[in-house]
Description:
Blueprint lengths: L10 H13 L3 E3 L5 E3 L2 E2 L3 E4 H22 L2 H7 L1 H6 L1 H14 L11 E13 L3 E8 L6 H17 L1 H6 L7 E2 L4 H18 L4 E4 L2 E4 L3 E5 L8 H12 L3 E5 L1 H4 L3 E3 L5 E3 L3 E3 L1 E4 L20 H11 L4 E3 L2 H6 L2 H9 L12 H8 L5 E3 L2 H9 L6 E4 L8 E3 L2 H8 L9 E4 L10 E5 L2 E5 L2 E12 L2 E2 L6 E10 L13 E3 L1 E4 L1
Parallel strand pairs: 4-27, 5-16, 10-11, 10-15, 15-16
Antiparallel strand pairs: 1-2, 3-21, 5-6, 5-23, 7-27, 8-9, 12-13, 13-14, 17-20, 18-19, 18-20, 21-22, 23-24, 23-25, 25-26
Helix pairs in contact: 2-14, 5-11, 6-8, 8-9
Amino acid sequence: MNSSTNPLIPAQIIEEATQWAIMHGVAFRQADNSARHCPFSIAPITMQREVFQHLQKVTPLITKLINNVSEDHDFLQAQLADVAKADPFIGRLFSLHQQAHGDAAHRLLPARKPLLLMRTDFMDDRQHGAKVIEFNGIAAGMAPFGQRGTEFHAFLREQWPQVSAHFLDESVSTPAENHGLDQFAYGISIAAKKVNASFTTQVSLSHKVVESKPTFLMVIQDNEDNVYDQHLLEVALNKQGLRTVRRTFEQLSTQLSTGENQRLVLDGVGAIDAVYLRAGYQYSDYYLAPGEEAICCQTLSQTRLFIEQHYVAVNATFSQQLASSKTMQMLLTMMPAEDFARWDLDLEQARLVKSVLADMKPINQETINWFNSQATKQEWVLKNQGEGGGHCVFGDDIVKKLEHLPTQEYDAWALMLRLYPHERELPTIAVRDGVQTQINDLVSEIGLFTAFYDGEPVTEMDGYAGYLIRSKPASENEGGIHSGKGILDSLMLSN
């Protein structure tokens, strides 16, 4: 990453661009309640149109697969028993799943209705093509930022076309449409309205009968800074006719109750129709007070279980979180395409899904011996079950990690083919905290959003919703926008 002594773009443009970002909610909340703009690229990446169209076609099939796996409770409990013993957090989810659904001999009919909002992250590898990095089945956020990133670059092209054109890899390319925010809101509203319509309760007010308004509950982390992305979704849901409320697990632990016919009720609000978890993917989300990571807070995890015992649309269910885990990704990657018929994918669909799954290997003594003696170390990454950044080990560090990894923790880890995406051909400008920096080796990760309710697609594009582009210098391992060296980007398509 090379800083330019003299700004490559006039300060006036940078100032107006950052103001646009903050004005449109593309920002993070600061401790003093001010806003800091999200770091961004000054120009979009370019991808071949056929590659993007392939991802648009395959990603809803991945979501269909994960949805059907998540509702195959016997399969989940049989396949994830070992990792549940190796990873305390997965073990906690596994136990909660058993409480929610019973075991094979005492299978319970789940009350909740599954609302699967996923972001499937890909990198377009130079040698292997576009491959899945990970499935995000819980807290699959930033669809609003994804759409805003596309709108932001459209604003720059309109205002300063010469500046924008200067940084494009290919002059003959067109913007990829992105309606991630609108389509997520559309899909959630369908789920909430269907749940709401199944209850006939009406309220008499001044001799007028009014139907209860569909209500959406977002479960959030306490005092978090990534709130504007969330509020953008809430505004879009308001336009769809939904009431929106926000609560932490700690607040919900004393505010939820059961209404008639397994209706979920929130104190001071009333009946809840849809629940969207933007928390719950890490131990700290369940703490009432600071504690050890190995001990998960009983009270708050039982609050999540309480939600699933009601007739309400939920993302993410325990099942969805387990089905989109790294271990399940590995199992599906190693499985023959023919086996996907169990989850209602025909052979052509299964092969499409398999075409984007990168090689993965379980950690056992045989794999460790192979890695130490035969593997090219830089071709692999070691992953545990954690969500977000900071959970990967690269290159020669893998040898050291495996050497000191206790045998009982083997099942919590997996080796995955390391992806090396195409670097942008031209240098570009990243803007962070109002300061521009020239980056010569920018690479990108593309996340495709999908929405399914009760096993069926609920967007206007057969389950596909939109995309999020995050770019970073090739030399950086952590590419998150919120935590990492990533910047918000968008996509142009070339023929």
